[in-house]
Design a protein that fits this description.
269 residues; mainly beta; globular; seven-stranded antiparallel β-sheet; 18 strands; Jelly Rolls; eight-stranded antiparallel β-sheet
Length: 269
């Protein structure tokens, strides 16, 4: 199946609507706005459309080869890529659109290793340092492919090294080890996210490619192969995952902010 939604009247019936913690979904002038007026660190706030809620992972519908095109903008700029301190005036929490396997589901599925191909944003205190030379936060094109054979082969020794280093206060795995462990490839999106841009990804069986306004941003040699679900969201979560063995999750405060989407097209190639 293919999907093309320009939100001329209301979101396509294909989408499941999720709003929690004071969040909302609104359509106006052929756009869909996902947002909330405020968020608190003691409450999860999330505005989201997806096509996997209440589905088993075996029933996720999207697999390669396909092309996704989303025209979107955000209420705030991206967090500074060089400093965790320069977050004033930046979008908080996480946001984005694309495909993933939602490692935990309400249907009682067992945890699975993360798989994703999407445009993904996170702001400090998030710090998911998965690729050497890039910050662990910011607006990115990203592929996470933890079930690749090469990734699984690195999982046990990398995890053991991380635990040993944490306990003994010795050397922890390098950023390259983290990249091998997670199968992550990513590139920063440097365009102003408060302006309208057209975001495109092609998820193919052997590689993946990302464009912003028809300018090629990232090519990834390996892609997820199992079916994934589509999601577009804005929430107030953060995550810390670093080579030093840090692993924690939480929620952050935020004022009024939103993600506005003009159109979503997903087509098989």
């Amino acid at each position: 199946m293919n999907i093309s939604d320009d939100f001329a009247e209301s979101p396509d019936s294909h989408w499941t609507h999720v709003t929690t913690g004071g969040a909302y979904l609104r359509t106006s002038k052929s756009t869909l706005r996902l947002g909330y007026d405020s968020a608190r660190p003691d409450r999860y706030s999330d505005s989201q459309i997806d096509d996997y809620t209440m589905l088993s992972k075996n029933d996720y519908i999207w697999k390669p080869p396909l092309r996704m095109t989303v025209r979107a903008r955000f209420s705030h700029r991206a967090a500074d890529a060089k400093s965790t301190e320069k977050t004033k005036g930046a979008l908080r929490g996480t946001a984005g659109f694309g495909f993933w396997n939602k490692p935990f589901t309400m249907q009682g599925n067992w945890f699975t290793f993360p798989e994703a191909i999407w445009f993904f944003y996170s702001a400090p205190p998030s710090n998911m340092a998965l690729v050497p030379g890039l910050p662990g936060w910011g607006w990115k094109a990203q592929v996470v492919h933890t079930t690749a054979a090469s990734t699984l082969a690195n999982a046990i020794p990398t995890f053991a090294n991380a635990v040993y280093g944490r306990v003994q206060q010795r050397n922890q795995p390098s950023g390259y080890a983290m990249q091998r462990l997670t199968g992550t490839h990513e590139a920063m999106v440097n365009d102003d996210m408060t302006e309208w841009h057209t975001y495109t990804l092609e998820w193919r069986e052997r590689d993946s490619r990302f464009w912003v306004d028809d300018e090629l941003l990232l090519t990834v040699p390996k892609s997820p192969t199992k079916p994934l679900g589509f999601v577009a969201w804005l929430d107030n979560e953060y995550a810390v995952v670093t080579p030093k063995g840090e692993l924690r999750f939480g929620k952050t405060s935020a004022g009024k902010q939103w993600l506005e989407i003009d159109s979503i097209t997903i087509e098989h190639l």
